[in-house]
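As described in the Methods, two query proteins were run sequentially through the folding procedure within a single session, without resetting any intermediate state between them. The first query and its resulting structure tokens are shown here.
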Amino acid sequence: MGYETLVGPVYLAAWAGQIGLPESELPWITSLPLLGAVGQLLGVLALSRLTRKVSLKWLCIALSLVARSLWALVFLLPLLSRFSTFAADGARQIGLLATLSSAIGLTSASLWMAWMKGWAPRRFEGRFWGFRARGSTLGVIAAHLLAAVSLHGTRASGFALLLAIALLSALGSLAILTRIPSVARTPAETEAPDQSLSLKDLHWLIVLCVFQAGVSFVSPFFPYYFTRQLGLAPSEISIWYAITQLGISVSAIFWGSRWDRAFSQSAMAPARLLRLTGCVLALSPLLYVVNDIAILHWAAPIEFFCNGLAWAGLQIGVSSILFKQAGRAQVMRAGLLFSLMTAAQGLSGAGASWLGGWTAHALQDWGGFRALWALGTVLRLTIAYWVLPLLHSPNSLAISPKVSQAPG
């Protein structure tokens, strides 16, 4: 997670603001990594037959190694030594590299999901994701703190150091993955993986896409706004994002247990949790309508912490619902659903990110990004209250007939 954080959209957007990339280029560089999610769907479908013969563990590790090694190519780009005056062409090169790495890395993540499906006990899936969230946030917090040190001051070359740290983190995580045992698969799983797509799956994917669009309409632009328009140091922004991860870490175990209880209480309990966490996240952009750095210095860390509390609850719930949606018979179905989810969210997120950047530019006379924060809050609240609870709607769960086959 440390590696994913340091090469993710947050620091890509912060880097764009640091080097003074024009706003017209911002939607492009923030949406490209999201499109990698579409490429990973093609990867999973292409490898579906291979997974019947090859260990999920080693296939996952091999793809992760390739994806992470691609970032080493950045050091060969001739413009790297001129980060402070990096042209739009150089930014596009890195954006394309991020897309390819994301596509291969997410293919590996889909296989990891299938691999872990064999480990999580059914009654403890919420707690499984809770413990996983707590462990992963330690890496993310460390990554943000290292970023704060690396990006201290105004030297854009700090981003090169950040990439070196990311690659070292990637090597460390791969070494840990090799120590986790493989999960034995039954003959039924190796001979005929279930790749059918039901109406229930379509309902689930549509809800996730709408929610992702609401998030991506505003979220990719915060680091750019903080560095470019408010003049905040990237190191301070790193601290804020570390505080979000602290909120996730301290609440992850609670949320894991709470989701396990919700699934056993009533059909509507999960929907209420989705609405609660979604609405808290929806209010996140509203604070930044206040264009006062003095206020943001003390208010933003509080908001980022509360954002982490709500985000932990929502993501643990979505992951638990994904495992339940996949069923128990086929471990590869979890990987397929994860692949479909990330591809669909990638498309909707990239489109919403592009639309958000265009909207901010079009609303310059009305406040630019500040107008975008207000508009985004209304959009998010609408989705969180009315759409997100349908992710675990009792009516949708009653739909069972298979109507089509997944592509491939």
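Immediately afterward, the second query was submitted; its sequence and tokens are:
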Amino acid sequence: MILAPTLSLNTPARGYDADATAFAAASGATDVAALSAFVKGVKELGLWESMVCWPLRSEQNAGTGTTAYSLGGLGSYDGSAVGGPAWTADGLTFDGSDDYITFDNPLQSAALSAYSLFAIFDSDQTTNRAVIGSQGTSATTTAGIQMNAGGSPFAGSVATTLYHDASTDGNSLRAFSSIGNGNTGAWQMGFCGADSSEMSASNDNVSRVVSSSAATSWNNNNSARIGARLINSYYFNGTIALGLMADTYFSEAQTAALYTLYKQTLGTGLGLP
């Protein structure tokens, strides 16, 4: 049963998390039960205060209009949809030509020493590259989850690789999770993150690629995007169900636990592997 986000339905007696019901009241999201279960699980994992996410399935956000509401203890970072991405029951669908979500950068800090990006998506990418959840103003000052067409990253057949191992350019982090299988017709998870000792990336938490060369800062830009990069017009083609950013570096176990939690709550019905 899907519950409307009203005060009479979203009462503590029903056992819903207060942050989830507040998000539902603000956004108009109707899948309150799944939102509450996800938030409770994130809190149990100890990740709530360090992360902010954008649930993009229509019943888990506004479902109409241009505002993509944010959810998380890191702060309020509501996004604005540009180019007309379409709300659907599975997520926000981007056309690969001019669609994206823009929002204030949750990780804007020259002192930031760790980060994580996490996304759930179904790619229809057939040409060029695209970026999911990234920010930066040049090819060398951008971090993100990048999808490539043709079923493999830039070269070879490895499913997940690091575009730049990771290096610093002033306060700029150069790091990409570059994931293959660009046009699979199936839902996937992408992750990349770094701290002061290493960087890693994974796809469906199957093969976590780790580099000992790591950056300690994020590009100190005041804005970020889901569905596109700030430079080179690398627009995503497909549907994104969730974008997430955190100011901590998720361990492999935490990434796996978050993925499992998503599948069992907000991701029910997507057929994630």
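Residues 1-13, 150-178 have pLDDT under 50 and may be disordered. We note this only descriptively and draw no conclusion about the first query from it.
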